[in-house]
Design brief:
- The protein has two domains: 139 residues, Sandwich (Immunoglobulin-like); 353 residues, Pectate Lyase C-like, CATH 2.160.20.
- 6% of the residues lie in helices and 37% in strands.
- It contains five helices and 39 strands.
- A hairpin with a 2-residue loop joins strand 21 and strand 22.
- The longest helix is centred in the last third of the chain and has 8 residues.
- The radius of gyration is 24 Å and the shape is globular.
Length: 498
């Protein structure tokens, strides 16, 4: 007997619209073990299809299918299929995959239908018998297309005249921008509790958005994806992306330190992919001083970010400064990843921190949000004159914790953090077993290399590179490298490789 259950809802991750299902969530981590009990001689059950969730990775390149763990189960066998219509899901992308945990991760393609079967197997060592039933679920990766915004539009005015329907709350929607055309954002673009993507019409196109107002920027309570867009942020004092000043999602009330706090957990990813961000005068990411925002995932991938920080911007007038900032609200980002990207600063203000989180940590978030870990990852990035007189990171609630994972690999740092990038990356905590370093360059402003204990006592990999990468023209934002070990190993932002 087979359960064939077309999901009406998949918790917060699969959403029904126009007869089509959508999978999009931020976090790819699930329970570490699927075996939650032993019942010798027990007749096992099959997962309820209504409890199955499908979560897209932040870059939408993969998806993880998870189901409720079955008591007494030892292994599961999973098959995953895809097709162009719901009835044509016959192309196998995972065949008879046996897993001991209650999830599998498979590739993901946009605008495709998927089907998966989940079979609980006999647990012979425990004497538990497999059920006769097999669970089947279906979904697709279509988003709701909201149409193409006319070229030259002020997007604030366009959304005022064409408001997002209230019924699309917590729904993944996409606005297209005409290839090569310019648009404007004149004020804070408040996106509420929808999951919004802005991208060009064609998959290979690019669009342009200019901030032409002092409060121009994006503000969201849930999820946001920006793809293949060139931004000019000059003139805006506001953050590039901020969490909503007036959250449009319900909080979890948490009692800590003798007081009650509202924890606003944004479960959908905030992703900036394949974008150029020029003349950014304020925060890249900001919590708006709201207690307490907890974004699950923030991803920056294949982006070129020119920081022109000013003392009169929100970042400059807020006291201690940072480019990814949740300090005033006391929250933090569960998974922050910056990869294949360049950040360089030519502004009058040099941020003290690249990342500064607030005071809440694992002991508060694990019971309330269910978070059992957090990560900060920098991979294949180039950083130039960023936090040169400051510190790289500060995170009171998660520093030195065994539940925190720090990854710094294949990056080039020039004139960053006068007291040592590795030291400040780990917030001064040595012997961090959950830290990974590999092939990084820590070059000082005078062209020499930081070989002090601020590096060697924290990046203990011994793999750091002490060779000049020979940037082509950094004064004009050209960080191409040549004739160096970095070029041979392919470190730094890949766009600058020979």
């Amino acid at each position: 007997m087979k359960k064939n259950h077309l999901l009406a809802t998949m918790k917060t991750c699969l959403l029904l619209s126009a007869g089509m299902f959508l999978a999009s969530c931020a976090q790819d981590g699930f329970e570490k073990e699927s075996f939650v009990g032993t019942y010798p001689g027990f007749q096992l059950t099959t997962p309820d299809a209504s409890t199955v969730t499908v979560k897209a990775s932040s870059d939408k390149q993969s998806q993880t299918i998870t189901w409720d763990a079955i008591n007494g189960a030892g292994t599961y066998t999973v098959n995953v299929f895809q097709g162009d219509t719901p009835d044509e899901c016959t192309n196998v992308i995972a065949k008879d995959r046996v897993t001991k945990v209650n999830y599998v991760t498979v590739p993901r393609i946009n605008k495709t239908y998927y089907r998966a079967t989940i079979k609980v197997n006999d647990n012979i060592p425990e004497g538990n018998t497999a059920p006769a039933e097999t669970t089947e679920v279906k979904w697709n990766t279509y988003t709701i297309e909201m149409g193409t915004i006319p070229a030259g539009s002020d997007i604030n005015l366009y959304l005022k005249n064409n408001p997002i329907p209230v019924s699309y709350a917590a729904t993944d929607i996409t606005y297209r921008l005409e290839d090569g055309k310019e648009y404007y954002i004149s004020d804070t673009l408040q996106l509420g509790n929808t999951i919004v993507t802005f991208r060009p019409v064609s998959e290979t196109g690019r669009a342009k958005i200019k901030f032409n107002g002092k409060r121009a920027g994006f503000e969201t309570s849930l999820g946001l994806t920006l793809r293949e867009i060139d931004f000019d942020c000059a003139g805006s004092d506001a953050a590039f992306i901020a969490m909503s000043k007036k959250p449009a999602i319900e909080p979890i009330v948490v009692t800590a330190w003798g007081a009650d706090y509202n924890f606003y957990c944004s479960t959908e990813p905030i992703s900036v992919l394949n974008c150029n961000i020029d003349n950014l005068e304020s925060f890249f990411f900001y919590d708006n001083k709201v207690s307490c925002w907890f974004p699950t995932t923030v991803l920056v991938d294949n982006c070129l970010v020119h920081l022109t920080s000013t003392k009169t911007s929100d970042m400059g007038t807020g006291g201690s400064t940072g480019y990814f900032w949740t300090n005033k609200g006391s929250g933090y980002i569960r998974d922050l990843t910056v990869k294949n990207s360049t950040f360089y600063n030519t502004g009058e203000l040099d941020g003290k921190y690249f990342v500064q989180y607030g005071g809440f940590g694992w002991s508060q978030t694990q019971p309330s949000l269910g978070w059992d870990d957090n990560t900060i990852t920098y991979d294949h990035c180039t950083f130039y004159h960023v936090c040169s007189d400051g510190q790289w990171g500060n995170y009171n609630g998660i520093a030195g914790k065994s539940t925190s994972y720090w990854n710094m690999t294949n990056c080039i740092f020039f004139d960053c953090s006068s007291s040592g990038v590795p030291r400040r990356f780990l917030a001064g905590k040595q012997n961090q077993a959950t830290a990974t370093f590999l092939n990084n360059t820590y070059q000082k402003k005078d062209g020499t290399f930081d070989t002090s204990g601020n590096v060697t006592s924290y990046d203990t990999s011994g793999s750091y590179i002490e060779e000049d990468p020979h940037f082509a023209d950094p004064a004009n934002g050209d960080f191409h490298i040549s004739n160096s070990k970095q070029a041979t190993l392919g470190t730094g932002d890949p766009r600058w490789l020979p």
